[in-house]
């Protein structure tokens, strides 16, 4: 194969060959090559197929703005990434790459039939074509479109790579390490100012890497660059390459993605693939440079057609000639510079075609000196060549019209439509733009951030100009930070500074309906599509964009936005600012999900809180469930048991003997101070004044709207100290709510709240033998009905551990909750477990806890209530104090809606045929009514009850408390179930079981 | 991510340490049961939803744990000032003077 | 028995050349809440002037006191019973809340030349805003923690027990990542 590598050119290491594959074929490149530069060195331009028409495409750029050369890269199982830009991906030994959007292969693709169906696929064709018949969308159109369209293929295996994130605070962040950024860094790095300079490329230098002939202060640009980097490092500037600023957020927060391993053949241990940096900078300098614009003409997307500046980059940075017989088509001087570099490197430049009538005489003489033919005031009207350009058709322009064409054979066509400042990050800051008629482009104006934009990104051209501008930006930010700095003199020679004009579609003799002059290469949007959108009534650029999809591809219109705007403005016959510019949004370049996820994946996806007893549960085969951030043991299956069997056994054993349950996750708040009781009176519905120390009470917490927010048992440990418990999931919310009222409504109260959830391990013992088991272990309290009745609390010792003991029951059995210092939790559990063996103890989990409480009609906030349930709805009017002046929710309970007669009440349901209802199932009064039926409530809890020998359910039913004994219906997909409304208390309605029989005194 | 000045800590810190807590200066009556249904409904549900300078509450949740007030421009997302709970609503004209 | 931070003894948990993470021995700790006007009396009872600037930390004898909020202090002490007793005597005239929270947290010691850098993996604050000798309640990898900076590269981190495993795994992962970094 012919090589296009030029000896003595470029910064790649030709002494270090690197082998990789592309579509299964082996290629050799050099260390320092990208996939694109290595393939181009091997004469390969065809790298992919386009999104919509499956047209053959090659790289059009040499950077991250590349719309065409998207490939899949693969390292091993799971390490596959689609849509990687071949112009950015560095090669390494063993890299596997594949082209995309082709079937059966890249050179012959059946999908390219779309290209011939071009008329069908014009702007807005989705909206027009697939309107009818309506039911065809899901079955026919969408599957077809999904298969035919789309970029790349999603990976199917789990990604074994790791991703990282880090926070960074600095004085100055400079985005872009071209001449502007380098000069800015040098000027800003004074007096201890901490400067971070980043660049998305492998190395710093920006445009200097493509311009080795320029001389800065008498030094060749590359020597100057090397020396400058040494100086910057010695000044303490942190230089980060392969690092892209993807978004500019509020108050100078910049998101940056650093690529760490995608260029390595051997992955270092413990090194993440990418790292997301969250940077907060006092000052930001944007020095992202400018992007070259393509020209818009028929066939401008053929492989081999490329931006002139990119061809210059391939030559000077990678030592690759993109063609040996190139032709130039341009409206800007910069492409002449590229032509001269290619000619000097041995290319036979066939012609420079310039759309302008006059071009600087100096450039013309330089061309003549090299023997390059010039065609001023000419246009390109066609390109040909099946998979790579082999000739072009050039026509003179006469009065804006194309004259007779002439065919010029070539192997590359280098275009330049001028340059557009890169304003993406500036736009993220909500920075305003101003239209510059001379440059036919938007330039940055004001930004609300502490942000300075410098160099080519504010429309300046030429290395000398941008060095000076970068340095003044550096001085400006140093001064803003209170440091003196000075600009240095920069003298640049051999830099060819040029100018140009902006073009809409180039003049053509082809019928405009047939011209495929691409504006957005990646989304296959042509100039014709844009004009059609305007003809069909789109007036704003935002509408044109969405109708045509111009600028909506992964490159976010880096190539296409300004061309698209100019054409739309021309079609509307309005100046560009009146048509507007679409908004740039983060990320600047496509970013992996991994980079966003960072460390938060797999086991570390989110915090999993575990109690001190969790380890025992795990060792004893518990099945866990998440409850809020906690994981809790759900049930403890014995060998061969499924959940229903295990839960049945746990329920039975607890009601017959004793069960042990880890209640440590319950929220606990210590309320202390002289005004503690006043605070409790104001927060909870219940009266607290008369609760004696050593007693506890079930407390109900409402919102000011009158609806139930939380509940729990609250013990009065002493006159001024309450031990409040909350639901597991509600702990943080309740604490926040209490602090809110205390700090902002009642700051006069002398009371303070301390979260003690994690200070205690809490073990619940329930069952007829609970007292018998526990009593021998307790010192300081006598566990009799008289000395320590139901709803008592005390400080004592249990098994030698300091404890707070509560006599409470969430099961209807004799119950205790034992709080011991958290780290002693497991020891106490094991002690009780041992002592319980002779009593037939069982460990139970949250599922059994749910069943046992439902048998007693105890609610679970958030399950039986949903934020619209009042205490009266829940049948708990008894918990609402009647004589208090105020409590949170008291006024709410008087709201007209809350005292209405049609409230839904919590009731019990027993099915007539003994089936278990589904939680969440809707309830109706009349099963024979027309659909849609009037729904009157839903099932909130449903279990099989071992104690009752049948399923039981709780439900919210309209006026349910007035409908005891009535039958309601639960329509299900296959049948309708009838159920009778009952009390919520199914088991032991007289509460006889919570009493410790006097015979059990110990 | 915003930077927020906590008036208690007297430090300007990342938003990650704070949680938003709704509109500020929505006063709960001393004795709510004396309010009409209309007044109570306004207290519970009616909020300004300002385009422009909004008085709002934040809590330095992962810090000093205090609720405090802020004036923030909902268009630019800029904080004009933050101040302690219980302090009066600052004078906007003076603030505008400071901002320029 | 399943190995967790909760069951680990005090001492080194994990270390690289750059950072060592150890679990500190348990120490009695109290959460003190009161109004500013009462601080003189409370200072006397505790035996250290109660600092009033949030983040300020004072140590005397076996007692350390950190100001966490305008009315909140964390007291670590070898003589906590004595302090509790002295405060209890004041309660009638000097209303306050003193709650024993000795068993709520695990304390990690994070030190070594890369300690500060390690924290930047999960700590959005500017490390420079926490000066040596100070402490703060703050957020680390989405969990609330109390962080003391005892020296340029030595920190203590208090985390609630149930967060300890999660945060330790995060720190351990971070240590390995830093160790692999090329310098």
Describe this structure in words.
The complex is a heterotrimer of chains A (1002), B (100) and C (183). Chain A has 1002 residues and is an alpha+beta fold. Chain A has six domains: 13-125, Roll (Ubiquitin-like (UB roll)); 163-290 and 421-493, FAD/NAD(P)-binding domain, CATH 3.50.50.60; 294-417, FAD/NAD(P)-binding domain (3-Layer(bba) Sandwich); 515-580, Orthogonal Bundle (Arc Repressor Mutant, subunit A); 664-767 and 775-826, 2-Layer Sandwich (Gyrase A, domain 2), CATH 3.30.1360; 901-995, Beta Barrel (Elongation Factor Tu (Ef-tu), domain 3). In chain B, strand 5 and strand 6 (79-84) form a beta hairpin. Chain B starts with a strand and ends with a helix. Chain B has two helices and six strands; from the N terminus they run E-E-E-H-E-E-E-H. Chain B is globular and about 40 Å long. In chain C, a hairpin with a 2-residue loop joins strand 4 (57-60) and strand 5. Chain C has helices at residues 39-46, 80-90, 115-119, 164-180, and strands at 11-15, 20-23, 29-34, 57-60, 63-69, 72-77, 96-100, 105-111, 135-140, 143-151, 154-160. Chain C is built from four helices and eleven strands; from the N terminus they run E-E-E-H-E-E-E-H-E-E-H-E-E-E-H. Chain C is elongated, with a radius of gyration of 17 Å. Chain C folds into two domains: 9-26 and 104-180, Gyrase A, domain 2 (2-Layer Sandwich); 29-100, Heterotetrameric sarcosine oxidase (Alpha-Beta Plaits). Classes of the chains: A alpha+beta (1002), B alpha+beta (100), C alpha+beta (183). Chains in contact: A-B, A-C, B-C.
